[in-house]
Design goal:
Elements (H helix, E strand, L loop, with lengths): L21 H13 L10 E4 L8 H4 E2 L5 E5 L4 E2 L2 E2 L5 E4 H5 L7 E2 L3 E4 L9 E3 L5 E4 L3 E5 L3 H12 L1 H10 L10 H5 L8 H24 L2 H9 L7 E2 L17 H4 E2 L8 E3 H4 E4 L2 E2 L1 H4 L4 E5 L14 E4 L7 E3 L5 E4 L2 H5 L3 E3 L7 E3 L3 E6 L5 H8 L2 H10 L12 H5 L2 E3 L3 H41 L2
Helix pairs in contact: 4-7, 7-16, 13-16
Length: about 450
């Protein structure tokens, strides 16, 4: 328990203890020695968006930039800039009608105002950009692109994050209202932009090297066993025989045509292991037990390792999948298949559980799980899994457990599998080293920025 005294002249309207913690008071005193400006002094206009009804997705959304504009959500706004990798799009009617007031133009400062994690994460809309935002972000018009860049660098600093966090309200889902956002003290230091941009450029390059190690598995199989996975060619007009029908009648399911290498013996996923579908409700079964939870949302695109979140059963909503170490977990929603969110369940000193949106493959003793994971991470299998998915809405289509078990796999001797798995393990280790080094570069840059801001 922390005890401290607050003088009456330090009261600023809020009466909660959190707001007056000594570390916050001391930080703001340091800031005021250098500047009396606040974020509000730089705001010409500020607006927040909304999320159109998903039940009427055809009315509001579109699948590409050809028929609409990017619809930015919290995950698209990062400290290193806008990330449009997993971006949704709204059509022009929605952009110019329902969400007209929250339109985003180049040079706008985009800031996160609600949600867990770091508060006030900010990006600047790049040159030529036009888009929109949901209700968890604000779009701020400043006097120019350079001003927005400096403000974003400041808000993304550890100092900016603490100042924003102090002004947030709410328990499990903190938020910043407009007034709180405008009162954030700002020290305007243009030099911090170059420091952070240089660091993020190095980080981007190192992460690209790391990603390259994890996306060249096709070459790995060709080099070690001479397996050249077929190219998947999609045609718009085609003919199939009646005996090729597999129940579902959606055309996309049969559009991708490919021929397997007949120099290999082929089996199905169902032949190399079993599908685990054991689920339970942690909040009802073992509410006080702490679990190691694997969530799809916690995984980056094409992750090298699983991310474990330690959480008690009572804090887990709904059903969870019981998993074992070395189970192969395949995210089955089409957007997550596109991003290859497939991982190996790691060892843990706590019971392992995962989202039920994973397919859990438990390999038998004749197959190396890491070898199987690497094979499924190739572009060929990604295309085939997307092809076999079912559902009316593209973003909600899923790969069924039954269709997954029918996927063809080459039958490879365990000794060779182990050799390839060792190389995969080496690449994963090197990729993790590069990512750790990249993160260290960012942390060192942030320390320089903090020193520059406070003049230490």
């Amino acid at each position: 328990m922390q005890c401290f005294v607050v003088q009456s002249d330090e009261i600023e309207g809020r009466l909660d203890v959190f707001y007056y913690q000594p570390e916050f008071i001391e930080l703001e005193r340091k800031i005021k020695k250098h500047s009396s400006k606040t974020l509000g002094d730089f705001i010409i206009n500020i607006s927040s968006g909304a999320t159109p009804e998903k039940d009427e997705s055809e009315k509001y959304y579109t699948v590409s930039s050809e028929n609409g504009v990017p619809f930015l959500r919290v995950q698209n706004v990062t400290e290193s800039g806008l990330n449009l990798e997993d971006c949704k799009y709204i059509n022009f009617d929605t952009h110019n009608g329902m969400l007209k007031r929250s339109q985003v133009k180049e040079g706008y400062l985009l800031t996160k105002i609600t949600g867990v994690g770091r508060m006030a994460i900010s990006s600047v809309a790049p040159k030529g950009f036009e888009g929109n935002i949901n209700q968890h972000l604000v779009a701020i018009k400043t006097d120019g692109y350079q001003t927005s860049e400096v403000l974003a660098a400041f808000l993304n600093s550890d100092i900016g994050e603490r100042l924003a966090f102090r002004r947030s309200t709410g328990g499990t889902r903190p938020a910043l209202d407009y007034q709180a956002l405008k009162t954030i003290p700002v020290i305007f230091k243009p030099g911090i932009v170059d420091i952070m941009q240089s660091a993020y450029a190095q980080k981007k390059q190192m992460e690209a090297e790391a990603q390259g190690l994890l996306t060249s598995f096709d070459e790995l199989f060709l080099e070690h066993i001479g397996l050249k996975l077929p190219e998947v060619k999609q045609t718009k007009i085609f003919v199939i025989d009646s005996d090729e029908l597999e129940g579902a009648l959606n055309a996309e399911r049969y559009a991708n045509r490919f021929k397997l290498d007949h120099s290999f013996k082929w089996v199905t996923v169902g032949n190399i292991g079993s599908i685990n579908r054991e689920t339970f409700v942690p909040s009802r079964t073992n509410a006080d037990i702490e679990y190691s939870l694997i969530r799809i949302d916690d995984l980056d695109s094409n992750p090298s390792l699983a991310v474990l979140r330690h959480v008690r059963g009572k804090d887990i909503n709904g059903t969870a999948l019981k998993v074992n170490p070395y189970d192969v977990l395949i995210a089955r929603l089409v957007p997550t298949i596109e991003n290859k969110k497939f991982v190996l369940a790691p060892e843990s000193d706590k019971p392992l559980i995962a989202s039920t949106e994973f397919i859990d493959l438990r390999c038998n003793s004749e197959n190396n799980p890491l070898f199987v994971l690497a094979l499924l991470k190739t572009d060929f299998y990604r295309h085939v899994m997307i092809q076999k998915s079912r559902g009316a809405t593209p973003s909600r289509r899923r790969l069924s457990h039954e269709d997954f078990t029918k996927l063809p796999l080459p039958k490879i001797a365990l000794e060779i599998q182990n050799k390839i798995a060792d190389e995969v393990k080496r690449r994963i280790s090197e990729a993790e080293r590069l990512r750790a080094e990249a993160n260290k570069i960012i942390e060192e840059a942030k320390k320089k920025v903090e020193e520059m801001i406070l003049g230490d």
